Amino acid sequence: MTAVSGGVAESLNFQQVKGHCPMGCGETLFVASGGYLTCSYVTCPRPDAVATLLEDRETEHVVVFDNDGWTVRHPLRERLDDALLICRIHNDIDQLRGPPAQLGTYRAWKQDDKWVWSGPHV
User: Fold this and answer.
1) Where are the beta strands (DSSP E) in the chain?
2) Confidence of residue 8 (pLDDT cuts 50, 70, 90)
3) Contacting residues for 41 by C-beta, under 8 A, at least 6 apart
4) Where are the domains of the chain?
């Protein structure tokens, strides 16, 4: 595999990684110093994107309820097998009559076909 034109991994003899940069640079990933997966494309807007995604320890949904409504950050695992496309949390939140307790940031996960809410967290 060769780096996209403008990449530095191949010329510096770094170990290339199979996969694509999530920023759209192509097959430009390599193992950088400290074992961090990094994009070698010189103009990549976020060469540390893969390492940053992998360092995030959150494995559940993060839901923020505020005065304007709510937003959801889905767990990364939902990208596998298109689970994100069938995730029911949006529909289920629409059925709520407000946040679980008060405005704030919550972790949410399914247990026995019901959502469990932890929070609010700062």
Assistant:
1) 29-31, 37-39, 61-66, 69-73, 104-111, 114-121
2) low
3) 3, 4, 6, 7, 21, 25, 26, 28, 47
4) 1-55, 61-121
Q: Model confidence at 69, in pLDDT bands (50, 70, 90)?
A: very high
What average pLDDT does the structure give for the chain?
A: 89
Let me know how long the chain is.
122
Q: Are 76 and 53 in contact (CB under 8 A)?
A: yes
Q: Which two tokens stand for residue 29?
A: 């990933």
Percent of the chain with pLDDT over 90: 80
DSSP string, 70-102: EEEE--GGGGGGGHHHH--HHHHHHTSSS-SSS
| Sheet (strand 69-73) strand order | 69-73, 61-66, 104-111, 114-121
